[in-house]
Each structure stands twice: as structure tokens, then as C-alpha cells.
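Researcher: Structure for this, please.
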Amino acid sequence: MIIDGFHANTKDKCKQFLDNPSCLLLSNDTYYLGYGMYFWDSLEQAEWWRDTKKGGKNLAAIITAKIVTDNLLDITSKEVLDALDRLYDNIEAKLAESMSVNGTVLLGKKLDVLFTLCNEELQKYGGIYGVIAYKNRREHQFLQGSLMTMKPVAIILVKDYKIVSNVAIKD
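Model: Predicted structure, C-alpha cell format:
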């Protein structure tokens, strides 16, 4: 399947990516999904990110792209999370010794470590798909009294540029 993805960044970085889509605009994030280029599945969320995190329309732009989802590691799946948990449990003791990891380790850090140390098991994945419940997102009045919510937003972390195509800057 192919979905639309949206990435907000400075105008210079957006142009740099447009000129060379094989050079992903990498984030060193360890809180969300780890190292890679982040895309939203929602233009509205990318606009919010551009306007609140990247300086607004005068300084930032939004990249649109088609993203192939066939080989995304889907961390909304219990089966996938169970498998990642087993992989992580196998290396956690060694990791704690070598990296002095104590207490809770951020998800992005866990995923980065797994993609590095378990390359054989994870090399087929060109990215990671996850969902976050954004607390800053206000609920729409139409949904009041229902179990529906606007809070979840999908995030796609691209690790392999080959799953991205049709890159453009959104007007």
C-alpha cells in the first residue's frame, strides 16, 4: 500500500531533500521512534508542526511524499511489539553493561539499538509506523459523548529512502 506522508522542516532543509531525496533529513530523536526522517499521515498535523515547532510559514515548509507501507515495522501490532520485546530482552543485560542504561529506556533508543544489533531480523523494514495520542490536540465538539477521538496521530519514521517517492513541497 502507498500512503501520503507530510514532513515539516525549514525551507532550506526541505529544498535540500527535494534536490536529493536519497539524503533523508534525519532526526536523532530517542523519544518517539528513533533515528530517521519523520512523516505525518496528516497534512493538518504537519501544518501544526511547521507553525509551532519550525517557525511558521515564513521560515518552514512541508514536504509531501508517497510512502510505501509494505515494509514498515508496525508498532501498533501486539504481535510485533511482543517480538520486539523478546529481541530487546535478549540484549538488555549486555546493553545495560555497555551503555550504562538504568531504569526506563526511551522507545526511540530501544528501536535504534534493535535496528543496530538485530540487523538480520529487522533489515527488511524500511521504516516504522506508530501512533501517538497528542494531548495538545483539542477534541472536536462533534465527537462529544462518543468513543471517537481526534487525538491519535500516525507517525512514519523512514529509515530507507527507497520507500519514499513523488517528493514535492506543499504550496
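Researcher: Any notable elements?
Model: The mean pLDDT is 90. The radius of gyration is 17 Å.
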